[in-house]
Design a protein that fits this description.
Length: about 240
């Protein structure tokens, strides 16, 4: 499925009905509904294996450890993230982890020195995250994200299920607080990302992530630049007009 120019009203209605049904449901119930009832065989989780990722990965493993899990390897991750990814995959026995990378010819043409992040982080995210993510999701009708309302900004009012014009998106942990995530990790003895102990509440690529003690969980991402999202979570385009 490729990105549509306009979103179909029936997809928006289906997403809204699912969001209303699942608002307030436990994340495991949201996942089971998506995996078993709504999108069987055409759903994937996209995970950054960052500071809060272990909870959702663990829940996915409880529902179906064969679910495709996509990791976008931008080639700018902290080495600790790659080690953490491998340890979690092994611990949770996830069987279909797909590591996707930027296209080498695009990098050679658009970011030959690997320093585009300095001059144009939006363009860098497009080559290293948005396009690989879009390619990896081509075969899926829906995907699962780990975004939460407590992240603030455009995430503050996220629904449990949405449609972005190309696909359905499921946000099982949308209403969970940092306290609930911490409690879940403690209950199941899940390891924390090693950089959390060094003051990183949110972890992405090394050039664009800094430790922070701020109240905004994502304040350390692209700090001081005004940029808050990498672009893989796009806003829904306008509704396709109905034919009369
Ligand atoms: S987060 Fe930074 S390094 Fe990573 S893709 Fe975006 S701009 Fe590039």
């Amino acid at each position: 499925m490729s990105a549509a120019a306009a979103v179909e009203p029936r997809d928006v209605s289906r997403a809204a009905a699912l969001a209303a049904e699942l608002e307030g449901a436990h994340p495991l119930e949201v996942l089971r509904t998506a995996v078993e009832r709504e999108f069987p065989g055409t759903l994937a989780l996209v995970s950054s294996f960052g500071a809060e990722s272990a909870t959702l990965l663990h829940m996915v493993a409880r529902v179906d450890r064969r679910l495709p899990v996509i990791f976008i390897d931008t080639d700018k991750h902290f080495p600790q993230t790659l080690d953490y990814r491998d340890a979690l995959v092994s611990r949770l026995k996830l069987t279909d982890v797909r590591i996707v990378k930027p296209e080498p010819n695009e990098l050679a043409k658009e970011d030959p020195k690997g320093d585009l992040w300095r001059a144009d982080p939006d363009a860098c995210c497009t080559i290293r995250k948005v396009r690989p993510n879009e390619r990896a999701l081509k075969e899926f009708e829906a995907w699962i994200s780990g975004r939460k309302r407590h992240h603030g900004g455009v995430r503050a009012h996220l629904p449990v299920v949405e449609h972005d014009g190309g696909r359905f998106k499921i946000n099982p942990l949308v209403a969970w607080t940092p306290k609930e995530i911490k409690a879940y990790m403690k209950t199941y003895d899940l390891p924390a990302h090693p950089l959390v102990a060094q003051g990183f509440p949110s972890i992405g690529c090394w050039p664009c992530t800094s430790p922070t003690e701020g109240t905004d969980a994502r304040a350390g991402r692209w700090a001081g630049s005004g940029k808050t999202e990498c672009g893989i979570h796009r806003a829904a385009p306008p509704l396709r007009r109905q034919a009369f």
